[in-house]
Amino acid sequence: MKSNTEIPVARHDTDQALEQKPEETGTVTIPETDVYEVADSYVVMLDLPGVARDDIHVRVERGVLSVEGDCAELHSTQATLIHNELERKSYYRELNLGDGIDVNNIDAHIENGVLTIKLFKTEQHKPREIRIQ
Amino acid sequence: MSLIRWSPAREVTAFPRDIMNFQREMNRMFDGFFRGSNDEDLIPSVWSPAVDIAEFDDEYQVKVELPGITKEDVRISLEQNLLTVKGEKKQEKETKESNFHRVERSYGAFQRSFTLPSSVKGDKVDATFANGILTINMPKAEEAKPKQIEVKVK
């Protein structure tokens, strides 16, 4: 298991997105990520091209959401690469979760190489309309 | 004591990655400076997906990294040896109207073009999408396949 100190991963607090986009290092790629907020949840979208569903692991531990994915072998051994830009082997990213997230209510699904994680807000943090008496 | 052969490649790989990243960042800054900031308003931004091209004895295989794109959003054309892959990645409606905290993924029009080293059978080209990677298979034309000629020694 990779520890936080080994991989310089950008951490993201859903309440304050201030740090820069991370740089890639070694064979671990930091997937490009979008985070947006809707009324009842935060939605995180990560680009994980080349990763099959069974090779993705999403975990929540002590307020940190981590996503790990391994790429399947891209080319047959008989091929000669005449142009090479895809060097991705594995992906890893961590996101700090704020207080307002219900860690027991998280959905994740992958489609066309994009992992979408829906982090539902706790009841307290959902917007509420107050009726005027 | 044994002698160790000097390998220039080893020196290069030992070069600190941080310095290389720094250099890349500097180049990017200079590029942006000389291009001027007004250009962005005039030219619609086009992003370039990463591409691999593999050669087999009888075909070329092109792989394009296009996460979040469906087959309806991509156009592949072949004009003699020039292969062009283009399309557009649209933002979903829900995404547009909501409150963004972070945007790193690319949106909008994309395009890549490549000249293949030899001619291919245009009518036999096929393409598939899997896990956000587009794979295009192009069988080589007969004249482009490697031929073995037996030479008799007299």
Written overview of the protein:
The complex is a heterodimer of chains A (133) and B (154). Chain A has 133 residues and is mainly beta. Chain A has a domain at 28-73 and 87-125: Immunoglobulin-like (Sandwich), CATH 2.60.40. Chain A is 0% helix and 48% strand. Residues 1-22 of chain A have low confidence and may be disordered. Residues 37-42 of chain B have low confidence and may be disordered. The longest helix of chain B is centred in the N-terminal third of the chain and has 19 residues, at 17-35. The radius of gyration of chain B is 22 Å and the shape is flat. Chain B is built from four helices and nine strands; from the N terminus they run H-H-H-E-E-E-E-E-H-E-E-E-E. Chain B has a four-stranded mixed beta sheet with strand order 1-7-5-4, with no helix packed on it. In chain B, strand 4 (74-79) and strand 5 form a beta hairpin.
Tell me which oligomeric state these chains represent: heterodimer
Briefly, what CATH class of the domain at 45-92 and 106-144 in chain B?
A: Mainly Beta
Task: Characterize the main sheet of chain A.
Answer: 4 strands, mixed
Main-sheet strand order of chain B equals: 1-7-5-4
Short description, anyone?
With 133 residues, chain A is mainly beta. Chain A has strands at residues 28-29, 33-37, 41-47, 51-61, 64-71, 80-84, 90-96, 101-111, 114-121. Chain A has a domain at 28-73 and 87-125: Immunoglobulin-like (Sandwich), CATH 2.60.40.790.
Spell out the blueprint of helices and strands:
The complex is a heterodimer of chains A (133) and B (154).
Chain A (H helix, E strand, L loop, with lengths): L27 E2 L3 E5 L3 E7 L3 E11 L2 E8 L8 E5 L5 E7 L4 E11 L2 E8 L12
Parallel strand pairs in A: 1-7
Antiparallel strand pairs in A: 2-3, 3-9, 4-5, 5-7, 8-9
Chain B lengths: L7 H7 L2 H19 L3 H4 L3 E2 L3 E5 L3 E7 L8 E6 L2 E8 L3 H5 L1 E4 L5 E8 L10 E5 L2 E7 L15
Parallel strand pairs in B: 1-7
Antiparallel strand pairs in B: 2-3, 3-9, 4-5, 5-7, 8-9
